[in-house]
Specification:
The complex is a heterodimer of chains A (120) and B (529). Chain A has helices spanning 16-21, 57-67, 95-98; strands spanning 24-31, 43-48, 77-78, 81-82, 86-90, 93-94, 109-115. Chain A is an alpha+beta fold and 120 residues long. Chain A has three helices and seven strands. Chain A has one domain: Ubiquitin-like (UB roll) (Roll), CATH 3.10.20. Chain A starts with 15 loop residues before the first helix and ends in a 5-residue tail after the last strand. In chain A, strands 2-1-7-5-6 form a five-stranded mixed beta sheet. Chain A has a two-stranded antiparallel sheet with strand order 3-4. In chain B, α11 packs across α15. Chain B is globular. The chains are: A alpha+beta (120), B alpha/beta (529). Chain A binds chain B through residues 2, 5-10, 31-33, 35-36, 53, 56, 72, 75, 84-85, 87, 89, 92-94, 96-100, 102-104, 112, 114, 116-120, and chain B through 8, 10-20, 22, 32-35, 41, 79, 267-268, 271, 310-311, 313-315, 318-319, 326, 328-329, 331-334, 341-342, 345-346, 349-350, 352-353.
């Protein structure tokens, strides 16, 4: 039963093994006050180290929390996901359409975090 | 998915959300990029149309803005007000027959003095906002919160409504015609206000002409002292909101604007509704969160963005490059429990993620709220409005109300204060002050050197000196403003205009009581006629 269900991956031409091994370069942006937690820097170009499994949003959040977040992690990440009130856009599309935390990151993806909260 | 505990590896879960192939629900052709209201997926073009249409529909449905009217846009630089500005630009610039037709101006208030920002940060933020405002080609006013300390006390007066008569007209068209006719001559009350407060508006004129910063360090320090004297963040935010309203109102009155557009979004208003209930502002909910707020009489506050959720606004700004500036405020990076407003915000946001209909349900509930009109309308206008927030006083409750019960329990749990003025019966109720002014001589009431007696020979014209400062204001304030004042360490740090107006109201109220036997009540007239 598992074999008949297709795996939804964008840019599915590439070989599965190639995708998993290469490090992923991402362009991250923070807006709406979220940049305050990152020393006021709004744009970040990051390269995620390669690992055996593909990177998904959940792991990206863990990575951001560990490497980019300068202060007050509870204002950005809550549990597994972003804090309620922070919108995420992946390549200018709502991440709810992409599967939210389960979306697998591709090379050169553009991920934007916009805070809609009053106090940033 | 068929069994409860079945294990799947991660790849299978992708299938549950069809992503790439989801089509826009409106045009059914393009790929959807955004989900609104939890189920509707829109593509880029349809979303833009939907967004623009909602703004015009909101203005068209509540026919309050007349063509040619001067409207002041309150732009804080944040996403919602910047979005509102871009919608106004869009609506006014169209060649379509249904072009919006009013005359906009913009006001931006720099609140950095209250939130403790450095001057360089404030200058930078204001410069950023100014570049956005300049690109709109509308006249703009940049006002500093420090100027709130120097407002005239006339700002607290409720002006007579210029458009009250117009709205009871037979139809919108007739009302518009009437408005255009009356607008030929400037409304007399507005003219007086203009002449009267011309001097105090000079400082704002300077800023508008791009002259050097009128804010002196003393002003900033005075403002910081004011906010430092407030103990809780809740009360600070409340006070900031009040000062902001007064500044906007003053600018609108002096520059001749009859309407003010605020950029409160649906999410923000839902949070405001719940937190206002917690703050004790339940009596004025309809005015605080409704589309139009006419508590100030001559200037009406409208909220055209109240149908947009913050998600829609953020997406629109991002996709269509609407510039907005983030300015840190009082509650930036504050914890969840730092203030009532913050707590409500985090509560609503958390609930919204699990139950996406939360905000819209609260919004729909707020639409159904209406203010019950008080029985006396314009007979005693100045006595029935709260001094600071200008909503109807809700503290003239009957003997056996819950409010009186809280007052009694408060008195009973307090230690008896020093001085003869503090007696059990006068706390909270607008009773007569203890008669301890010098008998036949001049009225010589002065309290902590701040307020001088008026020097007249009549007894009972001013308050006696023994009345503690907090009690002076309490009877003039609504319940929630009382709570805000209670959180301040000293009431005389309040801006001078508030204290002066309080003084004036007290004198008038006392005088009224003195001659109340000789006044013909309006109800008696009606009965006898």
């Amino acid at each position: 039963m598992t074999a008949s269900l297709p795996v939804l991956v964008r840019g599915s031409d590439s070989d599965v093994s190639n995708k998993m091994a290469a490090p992923i370069a991402l362009h991250l942006e923070f807006g709406g006050g979220a940049e305050l937690l990152f020393d006021g820097v709004k744009e970040h170009h990051v390269i995620l180290p390669d690992q055996s499994e593909p990177w998904d949003m959940k792991q990206l959040l863990v990575w951001i929390r560990a490497n980019l977040l300068k202060e007050r992690p509870e204002l950005f990440v809550q549990g597994d996901t972003v804090r309620p009130g922070i919108l995420v856009l992946i390549n200018d599309a709502d991440w709810e359409l992409m599967g939210e935390l389960r979306y697998e990151l591709q090379d050169q993806d553009n991920v934007v975090f916009i805070s809609t909260l009053h106090g940033g | 998915m068929c069994q409860v505990d079945e294990e799947y590896n991660g790849q299978l879960e992708h299938v549950a959300t069809p992503s790439v192939s989801k089509k826009c629900v409106k045009c059914k052709e393009s790929t959807a990029v955004l989900i609104i209201r939890a189920v509707d997926a829109f593509c880029r073009c349809c979303f833009k149309e939907y967004f623009i249409h909602k703004f015009r529909a909101m203005l068209g449905k509540n026919r309050i803005i007349f063509p040619g009217e001067k409207v002041l846009l309150a732009v804080s630089g944040g996403p919602a007000s910047s979005s509102m500005l871009s919608q106004v630009k869009e609506g006014l610039s169209r060649d379509a027959p249904k072009k919006l037709r009013f005359v906009p101006g913009i006001i931006h208030i720099d609140e950095g003095g209250a939130s403790g920002q450095s001057m360089e940060d404030r200058r930078r933020a204001v410069a950023q906002v100014e570049s956005v405002l300049r690109s709109s080609n509308y006249p703009y006013h940049i006002v500093y919160l420090e100027q709130a300390l120097n407002l005239p006390s006339s700002v607290l007066e409720v002006g007579s409504s210029a458009t009250e008569k117009l709205q009871t007209g037979p139809s919108y068209k007739a009302a518009v015609d009437q408005f255009i006719q009356t607008n030929q001559n400037l409304h007399p009350d507005l003219f007086l206000e203009n002449a009267w407060s011309h001097l105090s508006s000079l400082s704002m004129q300077e800023v508008q002409n791009g002259l050097s910063n009128p804010i002196t360090p003393e002003n900033t320090q005075a403002l910081q002292r004011l906010f430092a004297s407030v103990r809780t963040l809740t009360a600070k935010e409340d006070l900031l909101q009040t000062l902001r309203q007064h500044l906007i109102l003053h600018t609108a009155r002096t520059e001749g604007y009859t309407k003010v557009m605020m950029g409160d979004s649906c999410s923000r208003l839902a949070i405001k509704l719940l937190s206002n209930i917690s703050l004790g502002r339940g009596a004025s909910l309809a005015m605080d969160t409704g589309f139009s707020d006419s508590r100030y009489g001559d200037v009406v506050i409208v909220r055209p963005m109240r149908d947009y959720s913050s998600k829609e606004i953020a997406y629109y700004n991002r996709m269509f490059d609407v510039p907005s500036v983030f300015i840190p405020g009082l509650d930036t990076k504050a914890q969840d429990k730092a203030s009532i407003q913050r707590l409500t915000e985090s509560f609503v946001n958390k609930l919204q993620t699990d139950f996406p209909a939360t905000v819209s349900t609260i919004y729909r509930t707020s639409e159904k709220l209406h203010t019950a009109c008080p029985p006396q309308n314009t007979n005693s206008p100045t006595f029935d409005k709260c001094l600071m927030c200008a909503c109807s006083l809700d503290t003239n409750a009957e003997e056996f109300s819950a409010f009186k019960a809280t007052l009694i329990s408060e008195q009973l749990s307090q230690r008896r204060g020093p001085g003869p003025g503090l007696s059990l019966g006068t706390a909270g109720a607008p009773g007569p002050p203890p008669a301890s002014f010098t008998g036949q001589g001049q009225c010589r009431s002065s309290d902590e050197g701040q307020r001088q007696g008026c020097g007249s020979r009549e007894p009972g014209c001013c308050l006696s000196a023994e009345m503690p400062a907090t009690l002076d204001l309490k009877s003039l304030l609504c319940y929630s403003c009382r709570l805000t004042i209670k959180d301040m360490t000293a009431v005389d740090i309040l801006p001078q205009y508030i204290l002066a107006e309080a003084e004036r109201k007290k004198r008038r109220s006392h005088m009224r009581k003195e001659i109340s036997e000789f006044l013909l009540e309006e109800e008696d007239e009606a009965k006898t006629s």
